[in-house]
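If your schedule permits, I should be very grateful for your opinion on a structural question. I have a record of one protein: its chain in single-letter code and its fold written as discrete structure tokens. Kindly check, if you would, that the fold set down in the tokens agrees with what the sequence suggests. I remain grateful for any guidance, and I place the record below:

***
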Amino acid sequence: MDHYAGFRQVAFGLMLGLLVLLSTACSGSLFKVKPVVELPALPASARSAESGGVRLSAAPLLSDEESQDLFEANLPLGGVLPLRIELGYQTDGVPLLVKRARFHLHDGEGHEWKFLSTKQAIARILKANGVFLYNPYSRKEFEKDFTGYAVDLKTPLPFSEHRRQGFLFFQTPDKAPVRSPRGLVLSVTGLSQPLEIHLN
């Protein structure tokens, strides 16, 4: 019994020391996400579709280097595909209710990729990068910085704004790392008319 009591005391001491170390050493964000600024123009490789006064352009962020550059995290490793989109709007002045939009992504084999909220994407990133112990403040900072890149799908898009851009996040069908998917098709329903873009 004394042996087990001693073991528990040592284990408790180690855990307490680890928690103190984490709380003092990890006071910043878990990953150094680049500050959110006005995103540059979409790359020339972006594909577009237009219908009912709405123009949608999209470009997937397929390389590890691109995701590391923005988020300091390897999103493709976690099976997360960031898809940069831009919504353009030119109608008679009535706001576009983007919260009605539903985004679906399919690959050339007919598999559907799951749409992820930013919180779901963050959970996948942390798991893939083996981040299990952290200061809660550091996670909140990362969530705030990461969410800043997500496209706003809650606020109506007014006619005066003309366009809105940001990222959507999708998960591979089998949660495996993203590996050069072919035949990706983005379809959007819930707007005035459906839209479809063949991404590659």
Summary: The CA atoms of residues 98 and 155 lie 7 Å apart.
